[in-house]
Amino acid sequence: MLQRALWCAFAGFEALCHAAQVPILSHTGPRLGDTTSIDEAPERGRLSSFDRPHYPTGGLPAEENHDPFVDWRLDDPPSVNSTGHLLFETVSSLLQHWPNTRMRNGHNIVPGMIPTGTLLYHGTWHPELPPGPDWAAFDPEHSAIFCGGLVEGGECWHLTLMTTRPLNIVYFDGTSAAKLPSGTLDSQDIITWGDVRPDLSFDEWNRITTLCDWGREYNIDGFVRMEMSFEVMLCNFTSGVRVISFPNIVDPVMPRNASAGFSPTFEVMYAGSRHNRYPGETRVRLDLSGLVSFYDTELVPSLVSVRFGKERWDHRLLNISTEDALRVRARLEEALSRPTDRSSGIDWQALIRVVVDRYSERLEFVQYLLNSTETNGYNADSVMDDAIKTQAQLRNMLMPYIGLDVVPRLNGTNVKGMASGMLDWARPVYKLCATTHTSLLREHTVTSSEKLLLDAVQETTREICRVVTKMWALGVLAGVDQFMDTDRELDVGTTQNVMNMWKKDINELMVWLDWNAWVKCRPECGPEEMCYLTTWPVGFPPPHNRARIPAPDDGGVPPLPSQSASDHTPAPTATPFPWRGGTPTGKLAEDWQRPQPRCIRRIDPYDLGDL
Predict the structure, then answer these.
(1) How far apart are CA 58 and CA 301, in angstroms?
(2) Do residues 119 and 161 lie in contact, with contact meaning Cβ atoms separated by under 8 Å?
(3) pLDDT higher for 326 or 609?
(4) pLDDT tens digits for 134-180?
(5) What is the average per-residue pLDDT within 394-406?
(6) Which of 17, 59, 490, 592 would suit a FRET pair with 232, their CA atoms being 20 to 30 Å apart?
(7) Burial zone of 339 (CB within 10 Å; 0-12 exposed, 13-18 middle, 19+ buried)
(8) Integer Cα distance of 58 and 48 in angstroms
(9) Residue 332: left (phi > 0), alpha (psi -120 to 50), or beta?
(10) Closest CA to 204 of 173, 172, 224, 179
């Protein structure tokens, strides 16, 4: 009887497919109406293709008076076009070097500020302040490589500035200072040129002057970006900053008696790695109530079809419509123009971190328990022990939401064809889990950005809770829950099949979430090593080896004011090519398009590890 009831529970969950922006893991096993028994469930969770069903389109459903749980089905996954989980992860990753190196094509633009008393650094080859816009680094290792080495006499003038007031900035996420035509500069292109311009990926001087001209109306002092470490495109070196020192330092690029493997670039990467994880670059404060995201499907609907079927690595803004580009710029200008006190006061970053901190390690541990368990040809005691351990972890995640009135109901007879109803008793757990963090926030949101953030948190917690609740409920029916007795005799075959289903569920959920917390070096690196993702420009192909994409046709978004001006000639103090342009160096890394974590040496002689 238990086996038949569990089969009915399984049969209703064939529609477990996640958004097409990440690889879709297909589901096999008994389908509604099949005659397959639970004894024939998929071996070791192996999967095969199935017809993708139509999914509803997102948001928290409205409740019906007759049944408060009618829209909380445990077999109802997100829409294939949903982007809330992508927005959630990218916002969770803001100003962190590791995730923005891994997924380098940014999709968010966020207003913010650099606090008073922050040190900024600038390297050049002569002792004069830049007369106009130029670049400054947050880490001295980063700025120092832009002077010396190439200059006769080895002069390296290293400027240290301190902010004397808060500097208003705009932050572009991703590896937004990488001069690549493959998407890293897309969001800047939309604001700078009005369209994506891969052919202008190395036109940094026009980029900075155009952005600064545009930002002047909104009192913007600079634009924060990231490459090997974080930088700010500073619009004026005499406004809001004062000189602390400007010495001619020892050339950091060309040391004496260095090994053949020496590279100052690695010291920059090590400096950048200090901002790898949350809270990231703390010298920049972002205002998420003004966030503009290209994952906002209402603001930028033209990118929905462009992204469809693509993995997240390949997401970019190419082929955005003219109308959407105009809306993005208008939304950003609106955010920069509104009064500073016009927001809810909700700490959105803290809310998102609460969700990540609560589930990240727990989900990873459940995956570890299941992937380290061999459920076929395994002795019965071990199978039961591993299942009980896994069920305990699932219960721990749901503990605050399991009320005394949550009791499993097994009809016992004639349940075939009523599969989805077999887990209806767990819907209150699912709903409470999914809504606890956000149920009262809707009435407090003020800006369109806050409503977007709320939707992203709701969509993400809803799917986490749906999958975890489903897994837990199946464990209860299998009799492996230590707190909820179903008076059923434990069966090894049934338990093995439950664990196979668990493996599939947890793997699919974690692929869909794609949290950067799970991307790490395994095993951990040694004390003379650091965990590394291939970082531009090291290991990248030179520009002339990349296919050039034709410039968009004329007649698109109107140009910004400085675009109609004559070509700029770099000021005499601008740092010369190739340092400012950032030429790719080193041999080509095999994973330069999709970087994978590996350990590399952090002391001379440096190396890139196994390419």
Answers:
(1) 15
(2) yes
(3) 326
(4) 999 999 999 998 886 555 566 889 999 999 999 999 999 999 999 99
(5) 97
(6) 592
(7) exposed
(8) 26
(9) alpha
(10) 179
**What pLDDT score does 291 carry?**
98
Average the pLDDT over 379-385 and give the result: 87
Phi/psi class of residue 582: alpha, beta or left (left: φ > 0; alpha: ψ in -120 to 50)? left
User: What pLDDT sits at residue 375?
Assistant: 57
| Distance (Å, whole) CA 144 – CA 134 | 15
Lowest model confidence (mean pLDDT) among 40-44, 215-219, 454-458, 599-603: 40-44
The amino acid occupying position 88 is F
CB atoms within 10 A of CB 413: 9
Residue 412 pLDDT more than 50? no
Q: Is the dihedral of CA 483, 484, 485, 491 positive or negative?
A: negative
Q: Is the peptide bond before 523 cis (omega within 30 degrees of 0)?
A: yes
Residues in the chain: 611
DSSP string of 28-42?
A: -S--TT----GGGSP
- Give the list of residues 6+ apart from residue 302 with CB closer than 8 angstroms, or none: 319, 320, 321, 323, 324
Q: Tell me the β-bridge partners of 292.
A: 109
* Tokens found for residue 517: 């917390």
Q: Is 277 helix (H, G, I), strand (E, B) or coil?
A: coil
In 272-364, where do the E strands start and end?
Answer: 285-286, 292-293
The Cβ of residue 231 has, within 10 Å, a number of other Cβ atoms equal to 25
Cα 247 from Cα 279, distance rounded (Å):
32
| Chain centroid offset of residue 249 CA | 38
DSSP assignment letter at 256: T
Q: Is the pLDDT of residue 56 over 70?
A: no
Q: Burial code of 555-574, b = ≥16 C-beta within 10 A, e = fewer?
A: ebbeebebeeeeebeeeebb
Bridging pattern class, strands 285-286 and 230-234: unpaired
Phi, psi of 158, deg, nearest 5: -115, 110
- Tell me phi and psi for residue 137, to 5 degrees: -110, 160
The beta-carbon contacts of 436-440 under 8 Å, at least 24 apart in sequence, are: 436/400, 436/401, 437/351, 437/354, 437/355, 437/461
**Token pair for 352:** 């998102």
Residue given tokens 């000021």 in the structure block = 571
3-state secondary structure of 347: coil
CA separation for the pair 605, 502 (Å, rounded):
46
Dihedrals φ, ψ of 425, to 5°? -60, -20
Q: Give the residue among 325, 276, 429, 419 at the shortest CA–CA distance from 109.
A: 325
pLDDT for position 572: 33
Among residues 450, 90, 94, which one has the least CA distance to residue 284? 94
Using one digit for the tens of pLDDT, what is the confidence trace for 495-534? Answer: 999 999 999 999 999 999 999 999 999 999 999 999 999 9
d(CA 432, CA 58): 18
From the centroid of its chain, how far is CA 416?
41
429-449 tens-digit pLDDT: 999 999 999 999 999 999 999
CA dihedral of residues 324, 328, 330, 332 (deg, nearest 10):
180
Residue with the larger pLDDT of the pair 196 and 571: 196
